[in-house]
Design goal:
Low-confidence stretches: none
Order of helices and strands: HHH
Radius of gyration: 20 Å
Shape: extended
Mean pLDDT: 78
Strand content: under 5%
Structural class: mainly alpha
Number of strands: 0
Largest sheet: none
């Protein structure tokens, strides 16, 4: 294999990789209800951030420790808008 052929092959593979193509956003933003792990318990980071946002919004009912990842993400998004952090 020549250097030119190898370079062309590498460029082809790189352009096929959405992680290396900054124009491809198809896998970056997904609706939380479409997440394959959305029904798992929220992460520690989500819980911490949600609690902080709920305190800032003075909405003690916004934090629920039993939320799943998708629900927590949606609530975080709503609280970010409400608190002007969006």
């Amino acid at each position: 294999m020549t250097a030119k052929t190898k370079k062309a092959e590498t460029e082809t593979h790189e352009s096929d990789n959405p992680k290396q193509d900054p124009k491809d956003t198809s896998n970056r933003i997904k609706d939380p209800k479409d997440w394959t792990t959305g029904s798992e318990p929220m992460t520690g980071a989500q819980a911490s951030y949600l609690k902080t946002l709920a305190e800032q919004a003075k909405d003690e009912d916004a934090f629920d420790p039993d939320l799943d990842k998708a629900e927590a993400s949606q609530r975080i998004d709503a609280l970010r808008k409400e608190t002007g952090k969006d």
